[in-house]
Amino acid sequence: MFTDYVKIYVTAGKGGNGAISFRHEKYVAAGGPDGGDGGKGGNVYFKVDKDANTLIEFRYKKKFKAQNGENGQGARKYGKSGDDLYIKVPIGTVIKDANTNEVLADLSEPEEEALILKGGRGGLGNSHFATPTRQAPRFAQDGEPGEEKELILELKLLADVGLIGFPNVGKSTFLSVVTSATPKIANYHFTTIDPNLGVVKSKYGDSFVIADIPGIIEGASEGAGLGIQFLRHIERTRLLLHFIDVSGSEGRNPVDDDNKINDELKKYSEKLAKRKQIIVASKSDLIQDDDKNFNELKKIAEKNNQPIFKISAVTGDGVEELMNYVSKTLKTLPKENLIEITNEHEKVYKLDDKEESYTITKEGKIFVVTGEKVDRILRKVNITDNESLYYLHKKLDEIGLNQELKKRGIKDGDTVKIGNYEMEWED
Question: What is the pTM of this model?
Answer without folding.
Answer: 0.63
